[in-house]
Specification:
The protein is of the alpha+beta class. The protein is built from 4 helices and 10 strands. It has helices spanning about 5-15, 25-30, 65-75, 130-135, and strands at about 45-50, 60-65, 85-90, 95-105, 115-120, 125-130, 140-145, 150-155, 160-165, 170-175. The strands form 2 sheets. It has a 7-stranded mixed beta sheet with strand order 1-5-6-3-4-10-9. The protein has a 3-stranded mixed beta sheet with strand order 2-7-8. β5 (about 115-120) and β6 (about 125-130) form a beta hairpin.
């Protein structure tokens, strides 16, 4: 049974689109269904040292399901649940900056300098970034790709990048 708030949402939707379906039919169907209105779940949550940008917005990244699954497989294979993927950005590459990725133990994470993200899918997969790297990567996703040339963790959807190389390991930023 939906809440009064859910009923108000449905009434608002049907008032904006009156020809789509009758309000009574839609609300009745909703009342007798098992559907629920929920907010989308973030793909990663900050578990250590959250950071905000200059405008006061949280600096976040996402971890795709594929990346979380692959990290979980590596942790299981190595019998080390304390492994995390460290992502850093350095000057270099063919476009000015390059992504560097390595496995690290959580005991090597700096509580002052590093931010730790954990996948929200209960895999235990973690990604670690220092503040300068997070500043350049906020809003992007950590993914795992499998291609003919090999498989790798990769940064996708970096909003700060204006261009990148063909292999996706270096990028240029908006100034």
């Amino acid at each position: 049974m939906p809440t009064a708030d859910a009923t108000r949402v449905l009434e608002c939707l049907t008032s904006k689109h009156p020809h789509a379906i009758s309000k009574t039919v839609l609300i009745s169907a909703f009342h007798h269904s098992n559907f629920a209105i929920t907010a989308p779940r973030p793909a990663a949550v900050v578990i250590a040292n959250p950071r905000k940008d200059g405008d006061g917005n949280e600096m976040l990244i996402d971890i795709t399901e594929r990346a979380a699954t692959r990290l979980q497989e590596i942790m299981t294979k190595d019998s080390n649940p304390s492994l995390a993927l460290r992502v850093t950005v350095e000057s270099g590459g063919c476009h000015g900056f390059q992504y560097l990725m390595s496995l690290t133990d959580m005991s090597a994470v700096s509580p002052q300098d590093d931010t730790v993200f954990e996948a929200s899918n209960s895999s235990g997969a973690k990604v670690v970034m220092d503040e300068p790297s997070l500043e350049l990567l906020k809003g992007s996703k950590v993914d795992f790709t499998m291609e003919l040339i090999g498989s790798q963790f990769k940064i996708v959807g970096n909003p700060a990048a204006t261009s990148s190389c063909g292999c996706g390991t270096s990028f240029d930023i908006k100034v």
